[in-house]
Structure formats: structure tokens, C-alpha cells
Design a protein that fits this description.
Blueprint (H helix, E strand, L loop, with lengths): L6 E5 L10 E6 L12 E6 L2 E7 L14 H10 L4 E10 L9 E3 L2 E5 L24 H13 L4 E3 L2 E5 L7 H9 L4 E3 L5 H7 L3 E10 L12 H25 L25 H11 L1
Parallel strand pairs: 1-4, 1-5, 5-11, 6-8, 7-9, 9-10
Antiparallel strand pairs: 2-3, 3-4, 5-10, 6-11
Length: about 280
């Protein structure tokens, strides 16, 4: 395929099964940050290039803390992806966000503590702006795409990312509600921040699977319940991606593609050779 893969989708391996996916290829990519969670499945839909990556690996073998987020984003960047749609499960911390609904968040709260959050360091200092972590342009486009798919979708909300892999206690869940959080999950961070460092537009299609454990009339969240809702929402996710592809333009009008313009603090001639080689894809 001559054209670049300008749309990347990160989610479960079930998303790959698009009847409309043509010229399907499996790409094995190594990066300076290690191997991605899975091979990248690339192809074309309606003449547009698309790439899929299974965040937790084929067969869901990596916990949220074990996912190599840096390798995943870097690998997508290396094949030309400039827009990413993340598809993930989440719990609801608001009564109006019911199981089966979809949320397109506009803010995020990082409550993780074990993950590599940046590509930089080792002699190259970058302070990237993430005041508005999600790309507003791509978020609006995926919101419209989900609407067209017939789903109940909510625009805006704050996604609280916890370390996991356990679910919350009742005390924690009630505290998160007091903080004003909207939904809770385990995978959005540091994915969203790494995408910004890579100057890739990023948005999340968050599928509400449960009310978390704060909801007194709700049974405790279980893996079985999460999977049941996710399976039901796979068709909605695929329809939404198809709608998005048909409406995307090749050019971007947001500022995600210049995120590093004034963020690099280190003089380029002082960046160590090995560090510079690892970061060349991002800094060039």
C-alpha cells in the first residue's frame, strides 16, 4: 500500500474482523522502546488506510500495567498514523452514564503510578502541553460517527485512569465521584500523553460496562459483566469506525501536529547520540 496509514485504532482483537477490510497485512514492528503489544493489522476500508493494534495483546495477555504503551504509539507513528481512536471499557461514576452508553471524554485524570509516561529523558527534556489532552477535532468527528451508528453517546466527561488490575473499593469509588470524575478505566494513561508527544491526534470511544461499585442497587462489577457489554458494543464500534473513515479528511486543522514545536528544552546538539537516534522519528 503506497499511502500512509493515517488512522490507527487501538482496542480489542475482535475489532479486526471488518468484512470491508481489504488488502489486509500483518506488520511486525520493533521500536527503540521494545515490541508493541501485538502485530499491527493494516488494510484499506473504502480506499482509506487503517491500522489496528490489540492493546492487551492477542488473547488479552497483558494487564493494564504491563502494556508497552510507548512501543504501541511509536509503532503506529512509524507507519504514518496521524490519528488514533482508542476503544476501551469503562465504569460509570455518574447516574446519567448508563451501561451500554458511550462517552467521548474531553478531560483525563491520571491516577496511575507504575507506567512510563514519556518518550523523552536520557538527555532530552520535553515539556508538552496537555491542558486539553484529547484532540477536539477528532473527538467531534468520532462523536458524530457514533451518533450515526445509532448509539447513545455523551460528549465530554473526565476519564479517571487507575492503575489496576483490580477494580475499585466502594470507598474509592465514592471518593472519585466527589472529585467530579465521570468514568473510570485503566488504559487511557499514558496512551493519550504519548500520542500528544508523537504529534498524533487522539480520542477515546469509552464503552460504559457498569456503574462501578458506588451504585448501591448495582451488583459488584465482574469480568463477565464487562465482557458481555463489550461484545454487544463491538458492532457499534465497527459501525462508528466506518462512519468516521468516510467523513475524515486527509488534512488536520487542529494543533496536535505541532505539539513539540516549543516543547523541547534541550539544545539539539547536546542530545546524546543514542537518545537522538531513538527520538529521531519524533523530533525530525
Amino acid at each position: 500500500m503506497d499511502k500512509k496509514y493515517w488512522l490507527g485504532v487501538i482496542g480489542g482483537s475482535g475489532l479486526y474482523d471488518f468484512p470491508a477490510l481489504e488488502n489486509k497485512k500483518t506488520l511486525l514492528i520493533d521500536t527503540p522502546f521494545g515490541e508493541p503489544s501485538s502485530p499491527i493489522i493494516s488494510g484499506e476500508i473504502s480506499g482509506h488506510a487503517i491500522a489496528f493494534l490489540a492493546r492487551h495483546g492477542i488473547g488479552h495477555i497483558f494487564s493494564p500495567s504491563e502494556v508497552n504503551y510507548r512501543a504501541n504509539i511509536y509503532a503506529l507513528k512509524s507507519i504514518g498514523v496521524d490519528r488514533i481512536v482508542s476503544i476501551s471499557a469503562c465504569g460509570s461514576l455518574r447516574e446519567d452514564l448508563s451501561p451500554g452508553h458511550i462517552v467521548i471524554p474531553n478531560q483525563i485524570f491520571d491516577f496511575t503510578h507504575k507506567r512510563e509516561r514519556t518518550f523523552f529523558g536520557n538527555g532530552a527534556v520535553v515539556h508538552v502541553s496537555v491542558a486539553n489532552p484529547y484532540c477536539p477535532e477528532l473527538s467531534n468527528q468520532i462523536y458524530q460517527a457514533v451518533l450515526e451508528a445509532g448509539a447513545t453517546v455523551h460528549k465530554k466527561g473526565t476519564y479517571l485512569t487507575i492503575e489496576g488490575p483490580r477494580f475499585s473499593t466502594i470507598a474509592e469509588s465514592k471518593l472519585y465521584r466527589q472529585w467530579g470524575m465521570s468514568i473510570i478505566g485503566m488504559t487511557a494513561c499514558p496512551e493519550v500523553f504519548l500520542a500528544r508527544e508523537a504529534e498524533i491526534c487522539y480520542t477515546t470511544m469509552a464503552h460504559v460496562t457498569d456503574y462501578d461499585v458506588w451504585y448501591s442497587s448495582e451488583e459488584s462489577v465482574t469480568v463477565e459483566k464487562v465482557i458481555k457489554v463489550l461484545q454487544a458494543n463491538t458492532e457499534i464500534a465497527q459501525k462508528s469506525i466506518l462512519n468516521l473513515i468516510n467523513n475524515l479528511t486527509e488534512t488536520r486543522s487542529c494543533e496536535c501536529d505541532i505539539a513539540l514545536k516549543n516543547a523541547l528544552m534541550t539544545r539539539k546538539d547536546l542530545i546524546p547520540t543514542k537518545t537522538g537516534e531513538n527520538l529521531n522519528l519524533l523530533l525530525k
